[in-house]
Every structure is written in C-alpha cells, then in structure tokens.
C-alpha cells in the first residue's frame, strides 16, 4: 500500500513539473505528504488526491447531507454523507478496473472504501462529541498517530485493495501490449500462416462430415477458398481481426487489391482491449473502411470471415431490391432498404375490380406502409385548415389548426353487401371484422409521437356498400397521401421525400406518383421541390368535388415502344439513320389498335402503350419514360441503352433482325437483373401478330 502511495505521488509530481514547464504556471499540488497523516479523516480529506476529494465533497457529500438534514439529526446526516462519498469513490475504482481488465468485479475495492468511510464517520463523530477525552485525556505524540494510521492503511490495503490490483497484473498487461506493437512483420506472417492452416484443417474436417451426410454431394472444400477478383472499376478490401481470450487484446489486418488482383495497400494495427471477438471484427472493419477512405477509393467491396458481422451489414442491398426473406431485424437493409417484409391483408379483394386494404410491416422500424383500392375521401370529415395558402395570408395560425383531425368516415372503402351483412358502415379499426383494434396496435403502433395522423386516418376508414359508393371525382393516377410535420424545415422535408420513395417502392408505384397533402399547411419554397419530384401536388381540402375516390392503378402497365425513326445525327448514310426494323410503324400501329380495342385478353391489367420517340425528347424525359415502363419493346439499336436506368421489375423485349445478332442489350439486362426476352427475325420484318402474342405472354407472366 505504501508503494502505491509513493508511486502515485511521484508520478503526479513529475506530471506537474512537465505541465508547469510547458504552461509557465504553477499548478495546485495533488498530494500533501499523505504518509504524514495522523488519522483517516486527515488522510482522505486534507492530504490524498486533493482534487478528487474536493470533487466528492461538493458533488456527493454536500448534496446527500442537505437531503438527510431534512429527515434526521445533523450527526446522522453528516455520517451518511461521508459514507455516500466513499461508496461512490469505491464504485468509480471498480469501474476503472473493469475498463482495464474486462473482468467481472469482485467488489473488494468497494468494501475497502466503505470500510474507510465507516472509520472516518466514526472518527468525526467521536471528535465532535469529545468522547475520547473523557476516557483518555492524555494526548499521544504525532509519531504514534502516524504509525497507527499507516498500519491501518497497510492492513486494509493488503487485505482488500492490493488483492484485485495483483489479480489484474497491470505490469504484465502493459508489457504485452507494448510488445504487440513492436512485433516484427515476419512474426505476424508466421502467426497468420499457422492460424490459416489450423482453420483449413478444421474446415476440411467439418466439410468431410457434411459430405458423408450427402448434403453437398462431391463439392470440393477448397473451391470456396479461391479469392475472387472484383469487377473492373472496383477494389476489394479483405480484413480480419485476432483476439486473445486471456488478455482481451486484439489486432486487425487488411489488404486492398484492384480488379487485377494486385495489392497496393496493406497493414496491421493494434486495436487495444476488446470485450469480445465480434467487437474486434467490427473494429477491424472500421479500420479497413478508414484506410479505403484515406486512399480516396469510392467503389470498394469489403470482405471478411465473421458471419455474425457480415450478415446484417455486408453486402448492402441498397438502394433497392425485391423483398428479402428472413431479413435480420435491426440490419442496415432493415433500416434503409426494403425492410417492410410482412404483409397483412385487412380487406381481401374479390374479383378483378374488388376493393382491398393492406399494410406492409417493418420489424426494424416498427411501422407500416398501407395501401388500398377504391378508397373514397370525404374532405368535409377532415377537420383542418384549407392549406396551400400564401404564407403572408395565414400569419399567426397555430400548427394544431393545420394538422388533420379525422372524423368517422373520413375515408371509406367499397364492399359488397353480401360481405357487409348487417354490419354496414363499420369502421376499420373500430372492432369490426375487417381489422381489429389489436391489429391496429400491432401494425400501426402509436409510438412516442404526440399525434399519429396516419394511425388516426386508418382508424377513420369504414366499409360501405357498393350501392352507396358514388363519387363525383375520380383520381386514376397512383397517389400517395402525405401528412407533413415541420414542412418548412429542410431536414424533415428530406425525410418525407425518402418516406415517399420507400412507400412507392414497397407498393410498386411508378417513380413519379401523385401526392395529396392531408394537412392544412401553407405553401413554402420547399414545395417547388415536391413539384419536381412528383407528378402532381394537391391539397385534400382543395378538391373541387365533395367526394373523391382514389383507385389503385398498380395493375396498369406502361409498355414503352422505343422507336428508331429517321433523324439527322451525322453526315454518314446521307444524314439518315439505318433502319433495324423495316415495318416498325406497322408493328406499333398494330399494338396501338390491340390496346385501344379493349379486347386484350388480359382481364387483370390495363395497358398504356407509350410511343417512345426518343429523338424528340429531352434526355430527362427519355430516362423518365424508361423508369416508368413495366415493359420496354424495341428493335436492336442504341436507344435501348437506356435500359441501364430501368427499375428492377422491368421486362425487356428486344426485336433482333438477322443483320444485328449481337448480345449488347441482353448482357446489360443480365447485369441489371432484368427479365429479358428476344424475338429473332429471319430478315428485318416482324410479324405484328407474333409481337402481340409475345407481349401477351410477357404480361401474363407479370400477373395479368
């Protein structure tokens, strides 16, 4: 214990000299010769670690004593304040030891401080009541008091304090950590080789057991170990971590290669203390990312061997993919991608034109995206301001007046009388058979927000009979209903845009759906961007008719026919483009007549044929047409290059003449993961009937 006192004082004294020299000012001393203390009170209160003593006195002792003074006598309040200060000090020391050793506390140090706090409280009480002077009026010399005090500290310190200090062995830990920094590269390589060989043996043994069970046939275990080159333009960074179960020390290594397999950056680093192998792997990934960022690399594939770390993080499915099965809750994909994987049908359709209402639930976000078909909005049953006014016209209006309050029947869905039975005009969310209150609480959780408008909207929906479902205005376009909060704030507006994007992708809407603001906010500068991002903006209270119905049009397919007409592009061929399909006009006209006749034989879908005259469109409009298309038809030609911008669910139908049997666009479709169909011609003329039949086949495969 005396060694601890002396070494701590020497260390802090040296630091004081250094700081005094650098800052050219004198610092207050941390200790006042603690080995000359004549009692525990003097040691802890006036001589040992004066800064901490002052902090505990002001931060723990004084507040605890003030509280206790109201409940008990001042003597007891003083003693409890002393014990509280020593208890906090003990817990702080336990936390420090745990941070250094990562071992479960054994609480000897806490008991050391509690014991000293108890003796100090007794000492203060005895001195104040002068009990000792009645029995021992002779005062003993300071030398005796000092010896008794140091003896008390040595005995209790060796019994409780030094036990845990010796157990954690800080000197050995410090030496091991320093040596790990000085380990030579060839020693690290040798250790890595030994680890790899050990891992291969274990993997081969495990694979042999799997093969004997017949699960994988005769697949070679070494095939999976071949390193794969990244694609052109990408780099690959392999990372790994090592972890010592005894010392909790960890290290990381990484190597970055280009698409030819040439390594141009690698290294190792000491990660210090880690609480688990998983934490070490996560630190190694962070180090690898920092190294790639410092090199200015943009397209990097990170590859590691920790499945627990890689599954929820790598690879990332962003920006969008079809719904993933068994998506881990809390994963990166669950937060920012298609995590709405659980579908709940509250009202199922009957027939091709029937009504329905359903929600897609995210386990990670604890929220839902809901959609419906044949939904009627009754603006008179939505209580809020009109919305869309100029800011200067509504100065002083409260936000509560702008947020919607939905009365019963604010939204309605049509339902056959045979399904309604005697429970007509029943509310969705009000205990009827369409959706119970329990399901509303489960899939549209109230959460921590003060006013959940979407939950109230769903709660207001009721089902009405089809004979009562009369509407004066129909909205055919795919439409998003949006309630904005902090509509003039850029951060909240950007999150609203992202939520609208996610809703469009989950429900399969086109890239530019219409938006109806279910709020009474006025216009702001940010509304210009809403107009640019979506096909149209309307306010719920601004509908000209008292009743409006939103029909889901997800069953409408845009079929884009990419045309290749004559235009002046370059001086070759007399300034005219060579035709790849001689009867292109005939084929398009046949498709147009087939769609316009209404007798397509596709009862579940409606078709919108788009005349893709790309030469007369701006580049922005060309890309928009591609992204809004469900099926893209075209003869082999440069215009089909636009399919690089197509959405994941797009189908490509290429008409290829005998002179242009080239795989350009088939390979692009394969790279994009798009469904691809080809019609190979004998010459350069296509049979319109055959094109129509092929298109019908494609649309039927899409659920029509």
Report a brief summary of the structure.
InterPro entries: Glyco_transf_61_cat, Glycosyltransferase_61, RNase_H-like_dom_plant, RNaseH-like_sf, RNaseH_domain, RNaseH_sf, Wax_synthase_dom. This is RNase H type-1 domain-containing protein. The protein is built from 22 helices and 23 strands.
What does this structure look like?
Residues 28-115 form the Wax synthase domain. This is RNase H type-1 domain-containing protein. One of its GO terms (molecular function) is pentosyltransferase activity. With 704 residues, this protein is α/β, with parallel strands linked by helices. It has 5 domains: 2-168, no CATH class; 173-212; 230-315, Ribonuclease H-like superfamily/Ribonuclease H (Nucleotidyltransferase, domain 5); 342-550, no CATH class; 556-701, 3-Layer(aba) Sandwich (Rossmann fold). Helix content is 42%, strand content 17%. It contains 22 helices and 23 strands. The protein has a 6-stranded mixed sheet with strand order 12-13-11-8-18-14. Helix 18 links the parallel strand 16 and strand 17 (536-539). Helix 5 runs antiparallel to helix 7 (142-168). It is elongated and about 120 Å long. Residues 206-224, 314-319 and 418-433 have low confidence and may be disordered.
């Amino acid at each position: 214990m005396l060694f601890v006192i002396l070494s701590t004082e020497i260390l802090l004294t040296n630091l004081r000299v250094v700081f005094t020299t650098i800052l050219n000012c004198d610092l207050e001393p941390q200790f006042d010769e603690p080995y000359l203390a004549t009692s525990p009170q003097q040691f802890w209160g006036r001589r040992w670690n004066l800064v901490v003593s002052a902090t505990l006195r002001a931060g723990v002792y004084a507040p605890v004593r003030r509280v206790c003074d109201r409940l008990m006598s001042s003597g007891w309040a003083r003693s409890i304040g002393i014990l509280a200060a020593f208890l906090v000090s003990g817990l702080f020391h336990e936390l420090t030891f745990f941070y250094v050793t990562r071992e479960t506390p054994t609480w000897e140090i806490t008991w050391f401080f509690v014991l000293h706090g108890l003796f100090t409280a007794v000492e203060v009480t005895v001195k104040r009541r002068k009990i000792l002077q009645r029995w021992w009026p002779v005062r003993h010399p300071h030398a005796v008091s000092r010896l008794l005090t140091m003896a008390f500290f040595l005995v209790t310190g060796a019994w409780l304090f030094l036990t845990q200090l010796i157990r954690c062995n800080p000197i050995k830990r410090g030496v091991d950590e320093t040596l790990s920094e000085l380990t030579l590269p060839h020693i690290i390589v040798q250790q890595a080789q030994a680890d790899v060989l050990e891992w291969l043996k274990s993997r081969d043994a495990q694979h042999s057991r799997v093969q004997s069970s017949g699960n994988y046939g005769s697949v070679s275990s070494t095939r999976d170990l071949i390193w794969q080159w990244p694609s052109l333009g990408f780099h690959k960074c392999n990372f790994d971590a090592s972890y010592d179960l005894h010392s909790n020390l960890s290290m990381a290594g990484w190597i970055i290669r280009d698409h030819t397999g040439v390594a141009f950056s690698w290294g190792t680093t000491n990660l210090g203390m880690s609480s688990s192998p998983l934490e070490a792997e996560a630190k190694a990934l962070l180090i690898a990312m920092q190294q790639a960022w410092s090199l200015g690399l943009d397209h990097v594939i990170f590859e590691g061997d920790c499945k627990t770390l890689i599954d929820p993080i790598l690879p990332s499915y962003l920006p969008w993919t079809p719904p993933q099965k068994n998506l881990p809750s809390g994963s990166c994909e669950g937060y920012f991608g298609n995590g709405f994987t659980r579908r709940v049908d509250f009202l199922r359709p009957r027939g091709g034109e029937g009504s329905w209402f359903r929600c897609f639930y995210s386990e990670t976000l604890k929220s839902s995206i809901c959609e419906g078909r044949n939904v009627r909005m009754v603006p008179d049953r939505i209580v809020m301001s009109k919305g869309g006014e100029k800011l200067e016209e509504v100065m002083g209006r409260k936000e509560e007046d702008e947020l919607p309050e939905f009365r019963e029947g604010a939204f309605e869905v049509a339902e056959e009388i045979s399904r309604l039975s005697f429970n007509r005009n029943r509310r969705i969310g009000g205990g009827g058979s369409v959706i119970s209150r329990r399901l509303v609480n489960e899939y549209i959780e109230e959460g921590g927000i003060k006013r959940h408008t979407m939950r109230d909207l769903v709660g207001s929906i009721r089902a009405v009979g089809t004979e009562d479902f009369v509407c004066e205005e129909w909205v055919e376009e795919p439409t998003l209903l949006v309630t904005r909060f902090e509509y003039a704030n850029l951060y909240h507006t950007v999150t609203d845009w992202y939520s609208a994007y996610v809703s469009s992708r989950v429900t399969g809407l086109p890239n530019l759906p219409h938006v109806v603001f279910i709020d009474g906010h006025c216009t702001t500068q940010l509304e210009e961007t809403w107009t640019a991002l979506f096909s149209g903006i309307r306010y719920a209270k601004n509908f000209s008719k008292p009743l409006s119905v939103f029909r889901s049009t997800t069953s409408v397919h845009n079929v884009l026919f990419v045309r290749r007409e004559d235009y002046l592009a370059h001086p070759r061929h007399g300034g005219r483009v060579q035709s790849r399909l001689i009867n292109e006009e005939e084929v398009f006209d046949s498709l147009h007549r087939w769609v316009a006749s209404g007798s397509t034989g596709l009862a579940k879908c409606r078709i919108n044929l788009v005349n893709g005259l790309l030469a007369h469109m701006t580049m922005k409009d060309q890309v928009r047409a591609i992204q809004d298309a469900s099926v893209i038809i075209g003869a082999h030609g440069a215009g089909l290059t636009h399919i690089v911008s197509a959405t994941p669910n797009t189908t490509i139908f290429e008409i290829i003449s005998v002179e242009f049997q080239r795989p350009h666009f088939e390979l692009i479709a394969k790279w994009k993961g798009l469904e691809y169909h080809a019609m190979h011609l004998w010459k350069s003329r296509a049979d319109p009937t055959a094109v129509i039949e092929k298109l019908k086949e494609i649309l039927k495969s899409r659920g029509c």
